[in-house]
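pasting input
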Amino acid sequence: MISNTTKLTRENFPINPERATLEGQNKYLGFWFFLCGETVLFACLIGTYLALKNSYSTGLSSNELFEYPLILIATIFLLTSSLTSALAVYEMKRFKFVNMQLWFFITVLLGCSFLALEVYEFIHYVDKGFKFTTSPFSSSFYTLVGFHGAHVSFGILWFLTLMLRNAKSGLSLVNAPKYYLASLYWHFVDVVWVFIFTVVYLLGMVG
Amino acid sequence: MQLARKQSLFKTILEYFVTVDHKKIGLLYLFSGLFFLVCGTVLALLMRIQLAVPENDFLSGQTYNEVMTMHGTTMIFFAATPLIFGLMNYIVPLQIGARDVAFPFINALGFWFFLFGGIFLYSSFLFGEVPDAGWTAYASLAVVSKGHGVDFYLLALQLSGAGTIMSGINFLVTIVNMRAPGMSYMRLPLFTWTSFITSALIIFAFPAFTIGLILLLFSRLFGAQYFNVAIGGNTVIYEHLFWIFGHPEVYILVLPIFGVFSEIFSTFSKKRLFGYNSMVFAVILIGFLGFMVWAHHMFTVGLGPFANAIFAIATMAIAVPTGIKIFNWLLTLWGGSIRLTTPMLYGLGFIPSFIIGGVTGVMTASAAADYQFHDSYFVVAHFHYVIVGGIVFGILGGLHYWWPKMFGYMLNETLGKISFAVLFVGFHTTFFVLHFVGLMGMPRRYFTYLKDQDFGDLNYISTIGSYILVLGLVLIVFNYIYSTVIREKAVNDPWNGRTLEWSIPSPPPMYNFKQVPQVNSLDAFWYEKMKGNSNMSSPDELSDIHMPSNSSLPFFMALGFFIASYGLMFLDKGSNNIAFITLVIGGIIAFGSMVLRSTIEDKGYYITKKQLSEEDPK
Amino acid sequence: MKKIKYFIFTVFLFLVGCGNEARSTLNPQGEVGKLQLQLMKISTWIMVFVIVVVLVLFIIILLKFIEKKDNKDFIPEQVEGNRKLEIIWTIVPILLILILAIPTVYYTFKLAVTDTEVVNKSKYLVNVNARLFWWEFEYVNEEFITSQELVIPVGKKVYFQLKGHDVKHSFWIPSLGGKQDTNVERTNRMYLIADKPGVYNGYCAEFCGASHALMQFTVKALPLDEYEQWVKNMKTKEKVSTNLNGEEIFNSKCSGCHSTDPLDPRPLKARIAPNLGNFADRPLVTGILKNSNQNIKEWLNDPEKYKPGNKMTNTYGELTEEETNKLIEYLNSLTR
């Protein structure tokens, strides 16, 4: 373990900087537990959605509603952003701060594009008369997808805060775990999207 | 301890607002838990007065429902949970030889979220709109409940639930990462083990509740349609979500109590816990099965005979690991040298009481018979046997046991024994007869019963019992005050304890262990004592100790969310700008504190070697 | 002192399985309740066995192993465990649980009504509609409606289709058998049998609001011939009423919600108040008060006092003393 006073260089930078200190180890483990809880959270939301999927009442049903090309593009944005955040962590482990910041910045851009598409999608649906209060289906759809969107927004804010906060100080063993966890969180949000894509949009196609 | 110079009272209080020390947070939990316990007891007494005689008009139907809802919610979320968290916070780090928990800041944050949740819930009395849909707040009723009562319930539990999840993660990481050298998993004291499993249950159970609450909140505030059955909504979803959380919640509360009693039995019979390995295995199994049985609360919902039969058998299966625990405790006592101290009396009172609560649990698990038991007073009797006879006995026994460690002085033994006896008699008088009230046909949550239906006599006995029970609690609180005034000084190891917390001064210094202890066995301290050592040895030299610095941010973060909750709740008042402004102000305080937290680097501070050696009295 | 003796005596009575036959699960009056009591007894005996074993051990421990004054420094042997014992107290509970599980599963399936065909074809079929805070009973085959008082034939399997129409309630007649919830989103089905004629209490067993405790009903089990006569009477349309004056008041104030016709043609949604078709024959007013002129009067004057949160308060304006009396007269004439 490296003490806090040693100057970090590419040579002495640990292979797993996120777990090089006790604090880092704690955060790393704690965050995994947090993600366990988040998994249950989304599982419950998805369960609720599945139970109410066919209760569209007088509103639009899932196969009349979804705009597939749009969703496909959004999905590509989000999946790519997962890759870029992984590249950022790769650069972090090589102690290349600027590269890391750059990859995270691209991640944020992709995340923002995803969000923009999602907001457009929602506005579009509302225009079609598919509002939050239209039917049990619409309520559960907006809740599930909206919850995911809120997670994406939080991830973006997290990345931005980290990047701004550490722009001058560079990489250290204090902020390496934070970057790492933000990226882990981003992957998680991405995986959740894969489930939402399957359960909401692909299953929606069959009605 | 000399490090803390004499301080003014104001400064001491202020310190509790900014503390990140697990011991101080533990005390905060304990005292706020005791406060809410008193509130919940008063509410219970009101109900028992109302039910003493038939067709009583002491409380109206509506008021009774409010009192009942608040009683249940308070006791589960704001009395039992914080009292257990208080014990866990104080004791677990000491038992594993740690200087603090893994996330001191989040620990404080969790506490303030819980406390503000409790204050939020009780502020409903000031607004005159009190939750009235039961502690379960089933969807159809909670959605149509008038006024903001149920909103208070939803937001209060959302706040305290967030705090609970934070604490759960914190304990898990603490126990995994912060153990002293040699403290392997199979050397963990059982209280730590049960705290560990409980924390894991919290992580998996509470999010389901969070979603249940959110669905209700969105339905009530934003007109979401999940529960609108006229257009295809479904209210049973909420029941599932609630009980997916609600059943593990029972184990979240009772498992640490199993741990407390394991410590007490072992200490006061001077014997190693019998079958330690199978005890650990049983706890894990109970925790696991706890997630498989939620639908036994829903046997009468009409899930069909397949579901009912499966959940019935799964529920009965829990009796097996619970039985293992009971017999292991009995065999721990067998052949021991039993000292009848007050904590031990709680332990000995716990066994028969909990057995009754346990067996009635198996009886209600029998689905076809449960059609009769369900939602009758039989169930009320059953879960009060588990909660009072198990959890409350455990908390009070545990408090008496660890009190000298926490405060450095003993609780009065004579008063302790008398108060236990009164409590025990009152408890059984109150709740034993309620089994029969239920079997005679009285449904639960009835604010009154008719004169010509013969529920009167037994209810009257129960009310008398509840007075005795409350007298017991009053005596216990009196003992706390009396002993604080008398201050009979406690030595480091007053009970001839077995685990690490007894090897350090009472009360412990802020850094707990001057040198991290080397653990060589289960019951580490007992092992050293038997070898003739009076202290734990340490693998490390005496060195500087790094401590986290205090912070007022947890308080303000929770305060922000607390204020914002009022705003959110009153948003529905149309053109009402005040609600919106409140929401924004709360949001700014909360997110402002978060930003401050992430920009100010907390370097902590060091207690130097010099200070440490100066401090040593010997 | 006498009262205490009486208390102990009552408790003892319940322990040996007595209880009021109108409402006790311990004194069931029909097949379903009897099966359930049987299961309750099986589980009780198994559990009593467990309690006795634990208590015997517990008492031996208390007698033998309390620390003696002269022996304070005694350190007992630090036993780790005992594989054999631990296996025994794992296996034995499993066996006990199996003994309980088998009848549980058997009875659970036996009591379940899964085949809707059987229900639809059954001769005695009642739709139970639960509302805040009253019960409507719709005789499906006979096509008439009554409220607050359920009448069933003795010795026949009567099927019920249960549904709640505002919030969730639960349909429970303790002395006839266990309960089922009246869900708001779907219909639950169950059956009950009454072995002998009698009057039984029915309750709402799912928390539903301010007057949950007062959402009660009565069940009257009649011998088959009397039951058939009752059905016939209910279906004869003509009213016996001659009280025109009271009827007028009823029509202007009450008939917007209440019907006096058991064959009420309105759809379920429109039937927002109890059907009063055979009001005068019912033993209770609003399911809880004895059916007397005085009680009807007080109920009409202030329903809120007797059932807080009910839907009737303030829907019919003020009634003068005279109007009330006439109404009562009219209501008393509603007999079949």
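fyi Chain A has one domain: 18-206.
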